[in-house]
Every structure is written in C-alpha cells, then in structure tokens.
Amino acid sequence: MYFTWVQIPNNEKIDQPMHVLHNTRLGIKQLTNNKGLWYITLIGAVFTLTYMPAASMYPLMTMKYFQGTVSQAGLIEAIYSTGMLIGGTIIGLFGKWQDRMKPVIIAFFLVGIPTGISGILPGNQTGFL
C-alpha cells in the first residue's frame, strides 16, 4: 500500500545554474529594505556571536569555576540541550504568532537573565547548585 503524506511541487527552475553572489546580493538588499527584519537579524547575529562562545564554555566553567565533576558538566550539557529541544518544540507547535518580535525579545530575556545571574554566583558547589 502506498501513502503520500507530503506533496512535492514540480519546480521548473531547479536545473538552472546557481548564482551565489547574485543571490547573496539580492538577499542582503531584501534584508536592508525591510528595516525591522534587518534590525532583528543584526540583534540575532550579535546575540549569537556573544552568547554561543559562552554556552560552549559551560562544561569548563562547571569544572573549573564551580569546582565540579565531569558528571556535573555532563548534566549541565544535558539540561542545556533539553532546554533547546523544548524551545524548538514550543516554536514548532505554537509558532504562528502575529507579532513575532515579542517571543524573540522574551527569549533574549529568558536566556540573558540566568546567564547574568550565573556570573555573580560564588565559585563553589553552592554556586553550582
């Protein structure tokens, strides 16, 4: 028995050669013409460039600053990954918001506040907990 779950439309332009630089210029032009989209792209880029290196340092911070164990570092990574999965699931299930800026701003605060708080915690097991 054969079931079709997804309809794939025919695309006549699929065999045309790619023009990467031309397409990149068109994309940047579209971004800069839409000021709101341009600003959120810049904010997202800055956030990613500043936060992602810190996120990759969680195991090192756990073991060196909080004097934790390898198990605790693994636990932190598992919690971080679970949070990412839950966030992706929420976006997938409820991601049809009219105003998409509100969830983005809320997400920045939901990530930024605990990160800021972790910077003032004492460097021992009490701070880790």
TrEMBL record:
Gene3D superfamilies: MFS general substrate transporter like domains. The chain crosses the membrane at residues 37-58, 78-97, 104-121. SUPFAM superfamilies: MFS general substrate transporter. InterPro entries: MFS_trans_sf. The keyword Methyltransferase does not apply. The keyword Cytoplasm does not apply. Keywords: Membrane, Transmembrane, Transmembrane helix. This is Major facilitator superfamily (MFS) profile domain-containing protein. It comes from Lactobacillus helveticus CIRM-BIA 104. The lineage of its organism: Bacteria, Bacillati, Bacillota, Bacilli, Lactobacillales.
